[in-house]
Amino acid sequence: MRASDRWEALVRLFAAMAVLIAVPLAVVAGTAGSTKAAQRIRVENSAKVAVTATVAGAPEPVLTVAGQDDARARFQAPVRWSRDGREGSATVPVPGAAEPGSHVTVWFDSAGKTTTPPRPYSDALWAGVALGSVTFVGMCFGAMVSASSTARLLDRMRGARLAAEWRRLSGPIGTDME
Question: Which of 63, 98, 116, 155 measures 20 to 30 Å from 17, CA to CA?
Answer without folding.
Answer: 155
